[in-house]
Amino acid sequence: MKQLTEKLANDIVQAAFKTIFPDKDYQSEKIKQCQKQREKEKNFRNQTSEECFKKMVEVIFYAGLLAKNVTERIESILAALGNFNEVSKFDENDYEKFYNQKNIIKNEKKIKACLHNAKVMKNIDLKYGSFINYLYSFSDKLPNDTEATEKILDDLRAKFKFIGPRTGRHFLMMLGLPTVKPDVMVMRVLHRLGLIDSEKDINKAVEICSEIAKLTDIPQSFLDLLLVKIGQSEGVELCTINNPKCNLCGLEPYCEYS
After folding, report:
1. Distance in angstroms (rounded) separating the CA atoms of residues 146 and 2
2. CA angle (165, 146, 10) in 5-degree steps
3. 0.85 cut: is pTM over it?
């Protein structure tokens, strides 16, 4: 496994950026992404429980499915399942009411998870006053408290369905907490770069991403964007499982696969 240095971290990030956004200026985009993250942190406490629940529903439906297919239907999905106060009135056995709605992705497990989670969100909202207040019960230093983020993740996984080590981090990242979503593409890229020993070692991947973000002074959400999109540039899939197009990828000089 490679030793991560400040130079290597910056080289990787900038090479990924140039591959994905060949016509954009890295420093300008870095400033923009840092400002975006600061706005997220500033508005973190103002998020309503319904806004948080809608983000959870999005994460659940995007997990494991082609993003394009979910994006095309996400408005219908949120219209059907995004209001936890209404959805919490139903049980998992009522899933067919939602399953048969027009333009919704017909995935029984995901729908049932949302029905269960609506009840959990309702209980949290009643107990703490809001979902954000529940998060602050772990630390008053949020959103910038990495240790608390890990505790929150464990509690979310215990309470909510379909919230695992990947989807849980995706959800927390969408809320504005400092983490990445270690999906298949992120794990593959990090492994091929020699930064993790296994594509299954999520904890190590999260640790490496946190370190890269610190060394390059960029938000983890921006790093996540770069690592995910490096798999596809200009509509061309690059970092595929088999026969990746390494010659089109700016990370080739640092990649152990090529």
Report:
1. 24
2. 90
3. yes
